[in-house]
């Protein structure tokens, strides 16, 4: 989740009549130092905007002003298993914090470490009934890839919904041996995991420090095989951004 831009925007901007519910996850330090403060700030801005649009709401008391409660699944804590020691049980994970984004849209944040079993960190209701898994540039380091995909595999396998959730995975190609590659990601997704991968979008991304004299108009992918888009001598593509949709077969 990082600073929470993608998840917060999804929760705040969707016009779904039933209300959108988003659970943001990252390592504990990121949740505490970045996600929670940003969500608190956004909620304050939303409340300020609502007061400015309707100043009389400060003195009115109507049923519409009574804040709704966050969905129970967003606030769930991991189940305590019989195999846990007393010391680990005493250090029970705190409940996620949930924030009202208006119009019955909610976003919550909780910690998740991809290198640890999912069921020890989240309650089953937080990963068994999802519509989408959004991973925005999460696998840029090679060391991250296995953990992320194992977590996604668990969500696919444990899903109790009629339709298995879709993984929307964005990735930016980078120039370094320590970073993972598009080919490596596709190999893991398609060959190793056996998942279906569809490239929804592709575009070149230029670094602000790149020499503008060496750049020209971006190339246009000529086919559905976007993972290896065409290039030409006058258009060096230093970095590329991909958006994949991934589903189990």
Structure characterization notes:
Residues 80-90 have a biased composition (Low complexity). InterPro entries: Methyltransf_16 (IPR019410), SAM-dependent_MTases_sf (IPR029063). This is Calmodulin-lysine N-methyltransferase. Residues 45-97, 210-236 are annotated as: Disordered. The relative contact order is 0.12. It is globular, with a radius of gyration of 21 Å. The protein starts with a helix and ends with a strand. It has five helices and seven strands. It has two domains: 1-113, no CATH class; 127-220 and 233-249. With 249 residues, the chain is of the alpha/beta class.
Distance between the termini: 27 Å
Q: Write down the domain tally.
A: 2
In the sheet with the most strands, the strands line up as: 4-5-7-6
| Morphology call | globular
